[in-house]
Design goal:
With 285 residues, the protein is α/β, with parallel strands linked by helices. The protein contains 11 helices and 11 strands. The strands form 3 sheets. A 7-stranded mixed sheet has the order 7-6-5-8-9-11-10, with helices on both faces. It has a two-stranded antiparallel sheet with strand order 1-2. The chain has a two-stranded antiparallel ribbon with strand order 3-4.
Length: 285
C-alpha cells in the first residue's frame, strides 16, 4: 500500500474548502485531518505519511464541510474557555468571540461567587466559569429542551473530569419569576442570547444548522436582550456585574438599554478582535 504525504492531502482539502467559500479553509482542513487521525492539530507536522484510507476519510469529511455542514457538527465538539464541549444538531455552536466576554466576566469575581448564565445553550459559559472558578455556585438557564439535553450532557462530562457541578434550570428568561429565589443574591450574570435581527443574511452554517430561536430575536435583534437586562437587574446584588453579548449593530442600543436602568452603572461596550462592537457590561449600583 503506497502511503501519501499528509501535507498534500491537507492542501487539497484546503483548496476544496476555499473553492466552496468556507471561512478559514486552512484551519478547517487541518482540524479535520487531526480529527480523522485522532491527534491534536499541533501534531500534524509529526505525521509525514498516511495510508490511503486516511486520505479518503479526510476528503469524505471535507465534502461534508464543502456542503456547509458546520465543522463542529462534523467533529462533534466546540471549544470555549479551555473546554471541549459536545455540540450537534439542535444547539447553538459557541463562537470564539465569546472568549472575550468570558475573560472579562472572570476578572470581576473571585472566591466563591454566585454566577448565573442566561440562555446557556450547550452550557458553554456556565461550564467554563465552573472550570475556572471551582468554588463558584453556577446556575444556568435554558428554555429549549434539546439545547438543555446538550447542556446536561456537557455538565455530566465536566463533573466526571472533576469540575464543580453546575445547576441547570429549564426556564425562559423572558418569563416573569424565573430564578425568583436568587433575586439580589448574584455576583455575576453572563448571557450570550439570540441577538441577530430577523431577516439578516447569515452564513449557511448558521441559517441551516443553528436553531433559529438561538440566533434571531425580533426585528431589531433586541427582544430577548430587553428581558435579560430586566432580569439581571433583579438578580444582581449591589456591586454585582453583568455581561451580555450582542450583534455588531448593537454597540449603542444595548448600552442604552443598560443605562436606562437606574440600578445599573459603569455601563461600557467592548469590541471583538476585529474591532466590532461585541458585548456590553454594567455593574449593579
Amino acid at each position: 500500500m503506497t502511503r501519501h504525504p499528509l501535507r498534500l492531502a491537507v492542501l487539497e482539502a484546503e483548496r476544496m474548502l476555499t473553492a466552496a467559500g468556507v471561512d478559514s479553509p486552512r484551519t478547517d482542513a487541518e482540524l479535520l485531518a487531526a480529527h480523522v487521525l485522532g491527534v491534536e492539530r499541533s501534531r500534524l507536522p509529526l505525521i509525514p505519511l498516511v495510508d490511503p484510507p486516511v486520505v479518503e476519510a479526510l476528503h469524505r469529511l471535507v465534502r461534508e464541510r464543502v456542503g456547509r455542514t458546520p465543522l463542529q457538527h462534523i467533529t462533534g465538539w466546540a471549544h470555549l474557555g479551555g473546554l471541549d464541549l459536545d455540540v450537534g444538531p439542535g444547539v447553538f455552536i459557541p463562537r470564539p468571540e465569546t472568549e472575550l466576554l468570558l475573560e472579562w466576566a472572570l476578572s470581576t469575581v473571585s472566591g466563591d461567587p454566585v454566577v448565573v448564565d442566561l440562555c446557556t445553550g450547550s452550557g458553554a459559559l456556565a461550564l467554563a466559569v465552573a472550570h475556572r472558578l471551582p468554588r463558584a455556585t453556577v446556575h444556568a438557564v435554558e428554555r429549549d429542551p434539546v439545547a438543555l439535553s446538550w447542556a446536561r450532557r456537557n455538565s455530566d462530562i465536566r463533573v466526571e473530569a472533576g469540575d464543580t457541578p453546575i445547576r441547570l434550570h429549564s426556564g425562559d428568561v423572558t418569563a416573569p419569576g424565573v430564578l425568583a429565589d436568587l433575586e439580589g443574591a448574584v455576583d455575576l450574570v453572563v448571557c450570550n442570547p439570540p441577538y441577530v435581527p430577523e431577516g439578516t443574511a447569515v452564513q449557511p452554517e448558521v441559517a441551516d444548522h443553528d436553531p433559529h430561536d438561538a440566533v434571531f430575536s425580533g426585528a431589531d435583534g433586541l427582544d430577548v436582550i430587553r428581558h435579560v437586562v430586566s432580569l439581571a437587574a433583579r438578580l444582581l446584588k449591589p456591586g454585582g456585574h453583568l455581561a451580555i453579548e450582542h450583534d455588531d449593530t448593537h454597540g449603542e442600543s444595548v448600552p442604552a438599554l443598560l443605562s436606562a436602568r437606574r440600578v445599573l452603572t459603569d455601563v461600557r461596550d467592548h469590541v471583538d478582535l476585529a474591532g466590532r462592537p461585541r458585548f456590553a457590561t454594567a455593574r449593579r449600583a
